[in-house]
Amino acid sequence: xxxxxxxxxxxxxxxxxxxxxxxxxxxxxxxxxxxxxxxxxxxxxx
Length: 46
Fold this sequence. Notes:
Elements: H1 15-19, H2 23-45
């Protein structure tokens, strides 16, 4: 009656949990790219 469980099975990888350790690098880089693009658009439109 007892079900056999494989302990070798990997749990599904959560995308959010895989990104969280890289956030101290990703947030400033994304912010810098956003500011650069906004400044480029402002200069181009002027």
